[in-house]
Amino acid sequence: MLTPADDYPLHQTPEPFAYAGSDRNFYDRFFYNAQADDGSFFIAVAFGVYPQLDIMDASVSVLLGDKQYNLHASRHMRGDRLELNVGPISIDIEVPIQRTSIHIADNDGPIAGHMTMTARHFPIEEPRFTRRVGTRLLMDVTRMTGNGDWEGELHVDGQTLHLAPGTVRGTRDRSWGIRPVGAGDPQPPPGGLLSQFYWLWTPANFDQHAVYLHTNDDEHGRPWNRRAVIVPVGGEPIEFDKIDINIEYRPDSRRVGQAHLVLGDSEAELTLDVQRHFYMAGLGYTHPSWGHGNDHGPLKVEHEIYELANLDDNNPQWMHIQGLANARLEYEGETHRGLGVVEQLFVGPHAPSGMADLFDPADPA
């Protein structure tokens, strides 16, 4: 099966692009978020390609006032990975790495408009994520991450959101590789499915810097994947091998209230104070029906609205969030203030946090 992608000199196997790769869990995903500097709104977008499932899906989610508006779409891909549109949602890579536009055509839901992100620096490559459960490969992922400025206009439930450089910034990542997608595994590993996952990701934007830190810890608090980088805008990334992570959890929960991160020998300190929660289920993560790669037929588009006051933060469906945070960076003798997110997915034990069971509250010593 030949597609337009075959005209590009990017093949990695003798197969046409439509057949490249063999693992049914292979995926290729775009993720974006946009945060208004006055805290008035937060936007996030996810767009996934699943070559072996022949499915493409996308979600746009907007946190505005006391509601989170979600638009989901899925379609059969027909082998063509370059046709980056699913229902009303489309992506236009105007200048690779540097500039990308997202369009949401008018539809029967509350979200429509367009938004363009321009990179503030060259993206960083996060360490390769490889995780096994017994002999079964669960994750094998590469991801690049970068911060940028947004411009455009989004219409949400009768309100118009204006995006302008300097006042609306955010983070994009591109990841690809192997992770569970689509229908569940009919034959899990003999030792059972993964029952422990501690994920913390804290990109932050400042006028002159971007900061990244993430960690994947095991149940003892030992990192199996961790990195911290400061990128001066227009400069080269500065990496820190020594990282000290201090988390204050909200009472009776696994939610981060404040993250205080010390890089190197106190060369830099990043403090993130979480103000609100964005629920990643709005983008399909842990969603009961709109999980990534699920088959909804040739084309399906659906809308939903979360009434934030009605969500139970201790319900496992809402465990995966991005905490919207005020950020403070102490670096090179100066204090910088900006915005960031504290993405968190904490499942199972994590000894330093006092987490013992699947979803019990944190109880740090």
Low-confidence stretches are: none
Under CATH at level 1, the class stands as Mainly Beta
Architecture, according to CATH?
Beta Barrel
Mean pLDDT across all amino acids: 95
The CATH homologous superfamily is named AttH-like domain
CATH topology: AttH-like fold
Radius of gyration: 20 Å
Secondary structure tally: strands: 23
Largest sheet: 13 strands, antiparallel
How would you describe this structure to a colleague?
- The chain is mainly beta and 365 residues long.
- It has a single domain (25-184, 194-353), classed as AttH-like fold (Beta Barrel), CATH 2.40.370.
- The protein is built from no helices and 23 strands.
- The strands form two sheets. Strands 1, 2, 3, 4, 5, 6, 7, 8, 9, 10, 11, 12 and 21 form a 13-stranded antiparallel beta sheet that branches.
- 35% of the residues are buried.
- The model has no long low-confidence stretch (mean pLDDT 95).
Task: Give a brief description.
This protein has 365 residues and is mainly β.
Strand and helix layout:
Blueprint: E1 26-36, E2 41-50, E3 55-64, E4 67-76, E5 85-86, E6 89-95, E7 99-104, E8 111-119, E9 124-133, E10 136-156, E11 159-163, E12 168-178, E13 197-201, E14 204-205, E15 209-217, E16 223-232, E17 238-239, E18 243-249, E19 256-263, E20 268-279, E21 299-307, E22 321-331, E23 334-347
Antiparallel strand pairs: 1-2, 1-12, 2-3, 3-4, 4-21, 5-6, 6-7, 7-8, 8-10, 9-10, 10-11, 10-12, 13-15, 13-23, 14-15, 14-23, 15-16, 16-17, 18-19, 19-20, 20-22, 22-23
